[in-house]
Amino acid sequence: MNGPNIPNGVGRRGFLASAAAVAGTGLVAADRSTAAAAPAPGTTGVPFHGRHQAGILTPAQRATAFVSFDVTADGRRELADLLRTITDRARFLTAGGTPDPAGITAPPTDSGTLGPQLPADGLTVTVGAGASLFDHRYGLGDRRPRSLTAMPSFPDDDLDPDWCHGDLSVQFCAAGTDTVLHALRDVARHTRGGMQVRWRMDGFVSTPRPTGTPRNHLGFKDGTANPDTTDAREMDRLVWVGKANGEPAWATGGSYQVVRAIRMLVEFWDRVSLPEQERIFGRARDTGAPLDGRHETDTPKYAQDPLGDVIPLDSHIRKANPRTAATADQRILRRAYNYDRGMDSNGNLDMGLLFCCYQQDLARQFETVQKRLAGESLVDYVKPFGGGYFFALPGARDSADWLGRSLLA
Amino acid sequence: MPEPRPVPVSAPPGAAVRRRRVLLAGGAIVAVLAVAAGVLAVGGWTRSRPRQAAASASDGLRHTSVEVSPGGCGRGWTRPEPGKQVFDVRNTSGGAAEVFLTDAKTGAVYAEVEGLGPGAVRRMPVTLGSGSYAFKCVPDDADAVTGPTVRITGGTSTGPAAVPVTQQDLIPAALAYQKWIQARMADLVKRTDVLRAAVDRGDLAAARAAWLPAHLVYERMGAAYGTFGDADAAINGTTAGLSGGVRDAGFTGFHRIEYGLWHGESAHGLRGPADRLDKAVRALRDSWPQQRMNPADLGLRAHEILENTVQFELTGRTDYGSGTNLATARANLDGTEALLGYLRPLLKTRDTGLPELDSWLDRTRRTLDACEHGGRWTPLSALDRTQREKVNADLGGVVERLADVAVLTDIRRTA
């Protein structure tokens, strides 16, 4: 609905902003182009355009806000406008630059929380679609990705409906919390009326202590055995949906996103002996090494330990990734964050893991692993209570493209 | 109980903060024009010449130093270029001034800096395309000076601009709106009388039925941020700021009665509050003809009535038992539309987003109307998630666009 010839596809203020000028005396049409000047110096940007969205293979930035939205846009045309607006803002914010002056016609176009020049600050904005977006409202029923459903409740879950699902997911990640919150505020403002936050969880990546993979709230290194994101062929096998996966054509280049809000009962955990903690994970707490190795990156040798004398059969790492040829294609790309959100009603600390992972096939990967983890000894100390399944949309190729274009075409 | 104080038409807006003033604020509205010059005069009385050359600063934008003074308004803009850029405006005169960058043909303003103190330098970011432009320097105590016309050729986009609204422009709207309010007063008193009478005769069912119609008349009048000053606290106050909460002697008005009517209080206990409410609305009605609204406040009210709705009604903060927040929201929407009606002639030529605003107002009205069934309004807590998100989204869409109305109708003296 907007003019495709407008530079950067912008020229609108936000969701459902009329691009057309109204004639009248003294009226000067606004062309709020967001053509950016130089971003603040000393900050690096993650490229926004590409076959795939950023924020998936991008090494986890320090800060995140994971936000689930319900779409309130009325009909398919408005949904397209909403997705274009999100794309425009993401494109601008991830590049950084100088916000447009509004003159005397409107409040400032930017919140100012990052100063007059926006740094890129490693910001990524990653958009996913939930199963509910494919219900009757927008006529997308026949385009639902093959295994995208509402996230089921697994046997060890205790899901709170207020913390589950959503029509769209937006994962904001950046080096600084201020950049993340600035981006969330900007996107929410420009899409006001088109979507409402359903639930939101902020997270952070801890500093590596002392080195290597950062630790979770249980004191263990988390995510050591991730697939190699620099190996494009491996990513095509494990993360990206390709033409041969039986998915709708529009979905090529996307990825299934699973997010799980997992409470960690840290007081209880702190009352567990160290050997027990280490047997539960299968790794040494101090070094992160598998219990049969010396270094964090050592590969556990399960074949030499068939009865689990060293690394118990029900330890987390052994159940999650048995490292067999048969389970190699079940591996997921983890991109988890720690969260901390105050206190529980019983006076305990409310903290845990904002687990997030990406994969090519929900059933083959996350769900298979999750089912294998059922009953693992870790379940006594963690409680998944929220999250959802989403499909991270294919990337926006260039400045004329927008997230969801192929879905709504 | 203090009564609203009549005030004369207030001074044109000075440096005082425009927000959150009551409509009839008496002393609160005294414009704080005299910001101590010594504080602002960072550069003192230095008369250093503005640099002629346009320079690129660390923000990557083209910067041009421009002088603001009676004799040299706009001096320094010697090499006009299109694009996003920053003027660093510097007041080289001995008094504070307003600075505007205008369209030389239409007078539309692209950028402004208010209250530029002697010696002070401020940024004026703007995007300019083909056209002719001129700075206007408006000293606080003298006539406006227009600088030389500067022509720009080339450039694909130009930032938004509008012809400023003057106090004169707003006076007819203010008078008309004041009359509209006056016309609601009789209804307010009449319906409040019905409520009081029902309480008086101990008919609490009738009182509950009479409460909402009376309250909605008041809410339709656009009471936001205590529009009616002290009268508002007496008529529509909540327990905010009252140490004793719902038992605080200072808790009076519609919500006090609401609390009693929906919490099993006896008619006897409610007679005092009902009587006080009735007196308060009569006092408001009687004093209103002597009141003078500040025209500068019209645009703010048009925006802020529904900001209040979002803050207090959509959160249920003002619900004391009747569950009628959505009815209140609907009345607030009526009040906003009435006020917008009077501003419309000014907005038509200035607000490019007006058609879009209208469509959001329509949308919101339909959404809220769907929450009423045969005179019964759905309580917030009975909305399912989808319904509540829809209400929140629509009101959110409206206030986002109403914000422009407030900015556009700020009174600016450019002549």
Condensed summary:
Chain A has 409 residues and is α+β, with helices and mostly antiparallel strands. Chain A is 18% helix and 19% strand. In chain A, helix 1 packs antiparallel against helix 2.
Can you walk through the features of this model?
The complex is a heterodimer of chains A (409) and B (415). Chain A has 409 residues and is α+β, with helices and mostly antiparallel strands. In chain A, strand 8 and strand 9 form a beta hairpin. Helix content of chain A is 18%, strand content 19%. Chain A is globular. Chain A has helices spanning 75-95, 177-190, 232-238, 266-269, 274-281, 316-320, 363-373, 405-408, and strands spanning 27-28, 63-71, 124-130, 168-174, 195-204, 255-264, 333-334, 337-343, 349-359, 382-392. The longest helix of chain A is centred in the first third of the chain and has 21 residues, at 75-95. Chain A has one domain. Chain B is an alpha+beta fold and 415 residues long. Chain B folds into two domains: 55-152, Immunoglobulin-like (Sandwich); 167-408, M75 peptidase, HXXE motif (A middle domain of Talin 1, Up-down Bundle), CATH 1.20.1420.20. In chain B, 41% of the residues lie in helices and 15% in strands. Chain B has ten helices and twelve strands. In chain B, strands 4, 5, 7, 8 and 9 form a five-stranded antiparallel sheet that branches. In chain B, helix 3 (204-220) runs antiparallel to helix 5 (254-261). The two termini of chain B are 43 Å apart. The model of chain B is unreliable at 1-14 and 20-53 (pLDDT under 50). The chains are: A alpha+beta (409), B alpha+beta (415).
